[in-house]
Amino acid sequence: MPVKSDSLLVGLSMGTTKTIMIVAKRDRNYPDSIHVIGFGDAPSRGISKGIIVSVPEAQQSVMEALKKAQGMTGINPKELSNVMVAFNAWDVRSESTHGMITLGGRDSKSDAVAREDLDRVIERARDESELNINMYPLHLIPTSYELDGRPVDEPLSMNGTRLDMWLQTVAVPMTYVQTVKACVRKAGLEVKGLILKPLASSLGAVYEEEKRAGCISICIGGGTTGIVLYRGGRAFRVLSIPIGGDHIKSDLATVLHLPLGEADFLKRQLFNPNTNLDELRNNGIDVDLATQIVLARIEELFSEHIRTALAECTPQHFPMGVVLSGGVSETPGIEYMLADILQLPVRKVDKPVYALSYGLDNAAYVSVAGILKYCVDVERDPYLFMDSEGSNKSSQFDSPSDRDREHEHDSGSDFDDNSNNEQNNYNQRPAKRERINVRERDYYEDDSRDANFNNNDDDNYDEYYDDEEDDAPRESVREMLGGFLDKLKKIF
After folding, report:
1. pTM (2 d.p.)
2. Top-level class of domain 93-168+432-450+463-467
3. What pLDDT does 35 receive?
4. In sequence order, what are the beta bridge partners of 14?
């Protein structure tokens, strides 16, 4: 029986080690019910530490994954062309802004919150943004609402006179977006939407109860470590650390003088319960030193990067603790090390929240499961996650004419036309409003605005996350490796 294209969900995850395309079918009678009907994967080429460094090579990986997915499903490639793409970025900025509107005064006599009111308060919050013009606002996430000073989960259709909202804007450099879109289009696909991989991974790993109670999602992939903080059921902070499993591979290759391929194989074998360690020793591998290298790099990631990023996180704020996922999380005992360093409970993900098949039911595939959940969530509630234009439309990034112009100039620059279109769209947003309303300013600064935190908290946790930039200096690979080798010398 043929599958209608409008019943398909197609996701593409562009990771450091793997490029995966997943195809799922949804039941129109039960919108939240989906099941995977096929997938295709390919080794990621042209991607280093999560970032595309060669469009032609990355394009080939996408085309290979598409070919495998098409072969498994038997669906015409044209029906699989509209994809939701998950990608990584380094310089992620997560900014919180406040918006306030008064209700009533419309033609309707009712003061109930309508969709146009939500659009207005979102635009007010966006006007407060101080992001650099070269940053692309990838996700707009309402984190909390208040109606007449009282917290509400969902203000739509509720009556009141004043609506306040706090908006989390997750932005990445414009060039990352342009590069990803160019790569996907050159592979013959259309970008239905974009999602940052840390967010996709968190959606695929964290249960709704954990989001509502408060938790931290940490996904350790091949090139990056993604962090998403949840409270009240909503993501309110997204971070990306450019360190992952590939750094362990590089350390093993450098210290043990191994080719990268052999170092990667050794990394996977060291903690595999089926591995014969004596056989590795007979092949000239110093197993004890290799184990020390892996554990030292993981401890460095946890102690010097993740703990610093989460310095203000306490069990009081996140009673559900940490949800740990990603390929590196499969290392035995890693959750106990993280729990000891962060002083938070840690749950290691065994499988994604969505039931996947075809051997995808393990922690390494949470991002593709998260793409599917993201698609379902935005269809059910368009105000849960919004794109840069403040809405979730299938054509959210470009009009057909924009795509035609790009193909006309395909032999020239990959990004020029697309860059101008996106930059102009972003520049057309209203300028930042001056805070001249004393009542609004005083209200915004009131510590009681966070309904999900205890009113007696005085640790300025929100101020830390809302106002402070994530500007911790990043060491170069050479400096990091030098420091790591110094640690090894002390050990031995």
Report:
1. 0.76
2. alpha beta
3. 83
4. 19
